[in-house]
Amino acid sequence: MGRHDGRAAEPAARGYVRLGRAVARWSGRLLLGAFAGGVVLAATLWAGTSWEAARALGGAAAVLVVVASALAGTLPAVPEPAPPAVQDGPGTRRTEPRDDR
Fold this sequence. Notes:
Helix content: 40-55%
Shape: elongated
Strand content: under 5%
Order of helices and strands: HH
Largest sheet: none
Number of helices: 2
Distance between the termini: 53 Å
Oligomer: single chain
């Protein structure tokens, strides 16, 4: 719970490590956006749309994917599922010991 959880705080990463992580993160987002934009461009050109309209739709898709991936990166991680509760069905426990060995 905050600073009272008993764990030692991790030391802050060096500047070049943080920069490298940010570059890797954003390059992945930009590559994904470029791929999505290229797919939309190719699909709209294949469907017979004009070059200007296809280029506008591809660019819009690329920007949308980059923004969506950046926003998705701000969400907290999914919590671990709780272990299932042990529930014995009716009649599975003996109430008195049996000595018929």
